User: Fold these one by one.
Assistant:
Number 1:
Amino acid sequence: MMSSILVALLLLVVFGGVAFLLWWFQGFWGCLVAFVNTLFAASLASVSYGPVVGMLESRMPTYGYLLHFVVLWAIFCVAMAIATELSRLVTRTAVPFDPLVERVGAPIAAVLTGWVAMAFTAASLHTAPVPRDAVGSGMFLGVSPDRGWLAWSIGAATKPPFGGDGGWFSGNRGTVDGATAWYAARRGQLEKEPGLRAAPPADPAPAAAQMPVDALPAAPADGAPVAGPDAPPGAIPAAPQAAPQAAPQAAPPAP
């Protein structure tokens, strides 16, 4: 219960702080630029951090529980800094707007930017080395911004015009429920470790590979006849089974 309250307070601070600061210090144009930069940096970090983590985990396996969270935020910070600097070089002068548009548009753009920042923060908590139950559904006043951002990230990684085979968001992590369950299992495993420096378990095998041995069909013995359309070339065909014969009927009694 306490962890849920702390998470809600953290997200409230991120949302309210970003929205208020932008609305107070920036006009409509500055808020629009900040919204585009935040959306770009958060999307880039969410889609690209997986391959970077995979490369680093092979070199630093004992930092696996930390790398996901650290790399995700590192990419976001670098992308945000570059996008902000480029936007300053390209747009040295703010575009003027009508005073009514300025008064209405600036708070709306500021709120949208704060929501994107808060949703990205909420989704990143799934990758954080925290207890399993610290991250749940409805983490922000009954709303789940983390699931919305995960759906956005998975769609960007798997659907046109920028998506492909899914990359990091494939297999068990190809859906919102699958991604949250995958990270929840990692956090549960971390609770069993003595410290943060521990090698996380490998990805779970597909369901077919986890089938019990006694449930798999037995392979035919050498030289045994094999029948069916899936029989390998050169297999000894099975002898045809004789049709069952009807039982002889008893003769009628003599008159």
Number 2:
Amino acid sequence: MASKYLNKGSFYDLKDMFEKIQFAKETWEKGKFVMIHDFKKRENEVDLVIPSAIVNPDHVAFMRTYGGGLICTALTHDFSYEISLPFMSAVLNMTGSRYPVINLMTSHSLPYGARSSFSITVNHVNSFTGITDIDRALTIRELGKLHLEFEKNELKGLDLVRRFGTSFRSPGHVHLLRASPGLLRNRQGHTELGIALAQLTKQPQSISLVEMLDSETHRALSLEKAKKIAEEHDLPLLSGGEILKLWRSIFKIPQQEIKKTEREEE
């Protein structure tokens, strides 16, 4: 199935993209991963992506084995805003006056030109060390379930803050990512691309992801090698350009509202 969607001539054929989105939806509903490549002129990396609420220890093991990068959980801007979850850069800026070395470290820009989406790290309170597949799966799954309650308007305001604060401790072993307001309008990283894909497939909008690395080159896994893994495991592989174009089309977002500071249209 995957090879059917990897050899198309046009990345921007809408019919092809709708088929790939449907394949992604079906894959997630089967409890499997979707692979997302951002942009050649951005990170140029492929991530394994899955809805947080369904993550189990086998998923975490797969992420370690076939990903190898940093396992993170992405949260929407609205959820993050509701609980006043800070960007890590804001936390560090607040400590800079007391710890001058922090000011020096946070003054550097990122080589791919994007603001980092990193927030704090957490463990679920019922985890042990927090690092095992079982512990990380527990943390990620409970984050996803809590986020879903928020999406369904079942939990808001101070009740949501209390639940989050009493369910998780920090620091921990799961890195939280806070999506940009406006999502792909303002930033086109894997955080935003994954959540946009969740919107397009009508899946829970907290997603978890990991970069795919290459133990032979010691760099990010190439797109060609990622395609082979997609075929071997029957996983969809979507480009950032495909997700962005379809997201704009479905939600009727004018091109002029999309910032092009981080990527060139592919």
Number 3:
Amino acid sequence: MCSSRIVPALLKISIAVIYLNIPVLAQQIKWACIGNSITQGGTASFGTFKSYAVPLQSLLGTGYMVENDGVSGTCLLKGGDMPYWTKGKLANVFAFKPAIITVKLGTNDSKPPNWTGVGLPQGCATDSTHFVADLTALVDTLLTISPKPRIFLCLPCPAFYNTIAGINGSTIKNGIVPRIKRVAQAKGLTVIDINTAMAHDSLLFPDGVHPSNTGADSIAAIIYRAYMTVTGVKNNARAFAPHSGAAARTGLIVVTGNKGEVSPGLASTAKAVDLYNVKGTALGSAAVRPNGTVMVDKSKIGEQVVVVKIR
């Protein structure tokens, strides 16, 4: 055989080997965060605050791609003052084609004009029928994305002061939260309860509505834990098992100095807490002080700590 024919043949074999050894990268799971200013991040009276989408991306890792589709001021109600339907980023969400969508709307719906309809140009009655119907319609709309995404409905953060455009914590807790649960049950969707989880964390909301950066970390951790628990992506169900009642509440500590303090709100009868990081790794235990707080040593446990079990 002519040597000139052997060389091209060897080149073909070599090229084939090279192609066969190219690693195939796993496709990232796309995650869209729909929401208002708490999702978008921005500037409040106390300064700038980050979106919880940023720490959520960090927690999920490189196997996920988190898109921030939050728009400040938006509400769920179609007849509200700034409906996400027309002022949000639905087009972006559809173009993104996410596998997972978290919907965290409702805070701005609690404003008196939006909730009662009084003073709105549309003159729309915004009773429970409209909220339930509009949220159901949003879910149905999102489910038309192909391939069909998995949708999680987040219960809004609590509002501790009713000073920002009339945002009302009582309306959120007693009006909006039950209606979101009703839609989730009817549509077979998972609820992520940020409202209850942060009910005692007023210090993480400097203006009563918007979270500090620590608060954003907390929101991300709550969403992350709920997702991991429901999907069983990682074997950490014990660490992220749901809890109920003040004596078993879950909280997040973000250490900023050599030591950090958990948000007040632990039951006064609690004596100690078991600590985990946000990915479920046990970090030991700590004693509860008389004022209901816990001090932890940053050098021993790192930046973020989850109080999973209170004893």
